[in-house]
Amino acid sequence: MSMTCPFCRAEIPDDSWFCDQCGKELHFCPDCRKPKRGTQCAACGSDLMSAEEFFRGAVVGLYLLAEGRKIRLREGIFGRTQGVYPEFAEYRYVSGRHGEFRFNCGVWQVRDFGSTNGTYVAGRRLDKDEWADLAPGMVLKIATDKYELGL
After folding, report:
1. All structural domains of the chain with their residue ranges
2. pLDDT in the model for residue 56
3. What is the CATH number of domain 60-150?
4. Strand 49-50 vs strand 124-125: parallel, antiparallel, or unpaired?
5. Is pLDDT above 60 for 59?
């Protein structure tokens, strides 16, 4: 399979991190799943990510879905005052440093840091520092907020 380099328009292998014709580093849209130029996708507005991030797991495109909100999972700590998810800053029942998401061996996982109001996967509260696998269709509860995991 191949893809088109957004810089020189050469056909290159679809697992390329750099164009083997022009040498440019490739950046991908996590939603359109294609290499693009710039920092944002012109088609959908998503922030572009490096090929390393894209091929490491963000391509899976797992989202937290709830009441009109759609938050794309990305690796890192989440909480009201810390982490890579500014979306949680407004939720008063989420602890300051609540938990963490990671992509491990092809599977998204979550853990709780011992937060006051907990993290629940499929109705079960996680123990402190316990990792749990996530998959589309599951329900994830962070403190008092419930999310369905979707693609």
Report:
1. 1-56, 60-150
2. 66
3. 2.60.200.20
4. unpaired
5. no
Q: pTM here?
A: 0.63
What's the token pair of residue 68? Answer: 């009109």
- 53-57's contacts with Cβ under 8 Å and 24+ in sequence apart are 54/28, 54/30, 55/15, 55/17, 56/103, 57/103, 57/106, 57/108
Angle at 69 between CA 49 and CA 148, to 5 degrees: 95
Tokens describing residue 1: 């399979």
Q: Encoding tokens for residue 13?
A: 């292998």
